[in-house]
Amino acid sequence: MEVVRMTNEHNTAPAVETRGLAFAYPAGSGEPAFEISWPDLRIDQGAFCVVVGSTGSGKTTLLRSLKPELVPAGAYRGWARVLGRVASGEGVRGEQAFTALESAQSIGFVMQDPAAQIVCDTVWHELAFGLENVGMPQNEMRRRVAEVAHFFGIEPWVRKKTEDLSGGQKQIVNLASVLALRPRVLLLDEPTAQLDPNAVKQFLFLLGRVNRELGITVVVATHSPEDVEAYATQRIDLDASGAPAPRELAEAALAPRWEARAAACAHADAAIRVRDAHFRFDRREPWVLRGIDLNIARGCVHALVGGNGCGKTTLLRCLAGVLKPQRGHIDNALRYSQALLPQDPKALFVCDSVREELMEWSTRCGYGQREAVAMARRFGLESLGVRHPYDLSGGQQQKLALAKLLLANPEVLFLDEPTKGLDPASCADFSRTVRELADEGKTIVFVTHDLDFALVTADFVSMPFDGEIACTEPVQAFFANNIVYRPNAESRLFGEIAAEGGRA
C-alpha cells in the first residue's frame, strides 16, 4: 500500500487512525480467519482523502468500520479511531467509544446507491430526517435545512418528491442531509458510481467546497481516482493497481476489432425493433418515453448513454419486456432466451451462499456443477463459495449476478450499469467477456454512465433525450462527434486494455 500525504504535518490530532486493523466475516465454528487487513492509517483533520483499491480489497468494509452504526458483523483485530474515539475493533483500554448520538452528529456517511439512502417522500423531509432523529428543536432544524439548501443551491427542490429527482439530484440531497448534522468527518463509498458525467462533476465540485470551505475531513472510496485528483490532498492505495494510459493506446489496440465488428454488424438482421414506443408510469404523469424508434442488431453490443433521468433504464426494461409501452410496439425476436441484470444485483440473490446462487437455475437451464465452478473461476469467485451474497463487496455482488445470468446462456443480455462497483481490471475482464459473447452471436444491450467502458465495449451507442432517441451511431463516431459525453483522456481501464493488446 502506498500512502501519499500532502496535509499539514504539524496537525497531531488525526481525524482517522487505525492500528493493526483486520476483519473476519462470521465463522461457523473455531477461530475466525481474518480475510481483510489494512496497513496502519492516519488521515489528518481537514484532509480530502481518496481510498483506492481493487474489487474486494476492503474499501467499503474499511469505511463502514469508521462509522459505529454501520460496522459489519464479524470479528475484529486491532482498532480504528475517529476523532480520537474508538469506532470499531478490539478497543483501547480507558478510551471512550462513540454513542449512537455522537456518531450521528460527528461522522457522516454517503452510500454508493443514491436511492438506497433516501427514506422520505419529499426533499424537505429528507433534509430534516436526521435532525429529527437526534431530537433537534424545530427552530434549529429549520435553520439547518435552510443553510444546507442555500449552500448547495437546491432551494427550488425542497418541496419536490424525492422519487421525481434524478440520480445526481438524489445524491446531492443525500450529501446535504448528512451535512445538516454538521459532521466533522464525511465518509463516501463510491458516491458517483451511478451518476452521469455532468452530475459527477457537479457532485465533486460541491464535495470540494464542503472540504475547503467548511473544513470537513472527507474520505472517499473510489475506483476512479482520476475524477477526484483535483480535490484530493491524500491518497491511500489498498493494493497495487494498474497504471492509467492515454485513450489513444486503447483505441489503437481495439482498431482491428472495430473494423471487423462494423462490417459484421452492418449486415446483421435486427434482433429487436422499436417503433413509436411511448411509456409513462401513470396516465397523469408526463411521458418518460415518447416516439422511440430503435433497431438493435443481432450479435452486436449496443450501449445506451445519457443523463440521469433521461429514460435509459425505463427503455431497457421495455426492451426486456418487464415494462409494456402504452403506445407503439417492440418486437424482440429473442424474447424467449433473454436475461436482465438490474441496477441492484441483490435483486437476483435468493440463496445463502455464492455456491448455491450459481447452482440455483441448474435444473431449469441445463448446466451442472462443473459449469458453475468454471464460471466462478472466470469471475474470481471460487474462494467465496460459502460466503453469503450480501457479505460480498459491491463489485463482487456485480460479478456474482453476471456469472449467474451467463450460466443461463441467454441469446440476448440486458445489463443496467454492469460495471458499477468494478475496478478497472474487472471492467477490462468484463468488457472482454461481453465482446466474446458478441463474437459468439449473442446480443447485448447495456445502460451505462461509464463512458470509458462504453468506448472499449460497444459497437453502437444510442443517446435518449427528452423521451426520444437523439442519435444512434457506431461507437467511434459517437464519441468523436460528442462534446459533452466523452471518455477520459486517460484511465486505468485504457491501461488494462492496451496492456492486453485489445484482448482484455
UniProtKB/TrEMBL annotation:
Domain of life: Bacteria
InterPro entries: AAA+_ATPase, ABC_transporter-like_ATP-bd, ABC_transporter-like_CS, ABC_transpr_CbiO/EcfA_su, ECF_ABC_transporter_ATP-bd, P-loop_NTPase
Keyword Transport: yes
Record keywords: ATP-binding, Nucleotide-binding, Transport
PROSITE patterns, per database record: ABC_TRANSPORTER_1, ABC_TRANSPORTER_2
Molecular-function GO terms, alphabetical: ATP binding; ATP hydrolysis activity; ATPase-coupled transmembrane transporter activity
Any Pfam family: ABC_tran
Organism: Slackia isoflavoniconvertens
UniProt entry tagged with the keyword Transcription regulation: no
Record lineage: Bacteria, Bacillati, Actinomycetota, Coriobacteriia, Eggerthellales
Domain ABC transporter: 16-266, 272-491
Gene Ontology CC annotation, any one: ATP-binding cassette (ABC) transporter complex
Similarity field: Belongs to the ABC transporter superfamily.
Listed name of the protein: ABC transporter
